Amino acid sequence: RTLYERTSSIPAFQRTRDLIYVLAKVAHLQKGKKDFLMISDVDLLKDEELKKFFTGGVDRETYMAIIERDIKMAREKSEKHYAVAVALYIYSLIGGDVKKSAADRATVRTLVARPSDTDPHIYDTVLDELLEFAWYIDTDGSRFWVSAEPNLNKMLYEEASVVGEDVARDVILEEVEKMAKRVAPQGFVPVVVTSLEDVKDERAFKLYVAAPPFSVENGEKMSKVFDRAVYKNSMYFLLYSRVPVEEAKFVVACDKLIKALEGDRRERMRQICQGRRLNFYVSLYRSYDRLAYPTSEGLKETRLSIELSNVGDDPDRAANRLR
Predict the structure, then answer these.
(1) Torsion angle, CA of 20/26/32/37, rounded to 10 degrees?
(2) What single string gives the DSSP state of each residue in 114-152?
């Protein structure tokens, strides 16, 4: 029905000949595997002829990038993700403005749900997950479509790709300085250090919180600083295992794009960036997984972990709770 009523509105698609071709091709490929055929059974990744037909064969040569990127990533995630992605792809092959006749959630469920699916609403979750990483699946909030025009995800990715590491590290340092004040126990002075030269031999109890470019791998030098100190018992070090530079780049890109966009696109970008910010905070806080503390035998390390529970539906509130 999708091919007959929608794809056939493209002049290059011959309603009778091409419809029979696609049905025969899919039936042959799925022989003995499915009880009946659905639009999501069209395999655009394993069959080169179908891939060429549903791009150049319907005057959509530029759509090859959609198959190679979004639909390929959807299959890597799961067959349900692939089913939604390919169904939306073919449903969006229509003459005219695809946005005006785009699919709503109920239509998406109808396109992909099988009798064996106990809860077709699982595809709502699948669709939301696709929107988190897809570059060519777009939405206005209630309807969903595929087009060669990159969506906000791709815009954000491209903006993040040009953010310099120095700018990203500044964002990390700013957050580490805030974190240090929150995690220091009562009676300890929090001190953010970017090198061992920042470590002072003083009586006051201090929690030294390492920040890039502090080398957390050079434990031997840390031990030498500790061994030479007079006030050994006052030195504690909170160390990280990785630097979430890429996550920080997205935070910078988010700030820039939210200011640049207007109207609905700004609000949608703000929603996307809520998740990106939470991802940055979670990555940063979880990266601080080592505490070095004084003992009679020298500095010893213990492993730390942060578990985030009861996140809820609001990434901004979850981020604030984590911080």
Answers:
(1) -80
(2) -TT-S-TTHHHHHHHHHHHH-SSEEESSSEEEE-SS--H
Q: Mind listing the pLDDT tens digit for each residue in 96-139? A: 788 888 999 999 998 888 878 778 899 999 999 999 899 999 99
| Calpha distance 295→232 (Å, rounded) | 9
Tokens read off for 85 = 């992605």
Q: Which residues lie below 8 Å from residue 225, measured CB to CB, with a gap of 6+? A: 196, 199
* Alpha-carbon gap, residue 136 to 98, rounded angstroms: 13
pTM of the predicted model over 0.85: no
Is the separation of the CB atoms in 147 and 92 below 8 Å? yes
pLDDT tens string 129-169: 999 899 999 998 889 999 988 899 999 999 999 999 999 99
56: its two tokens: 């150049």
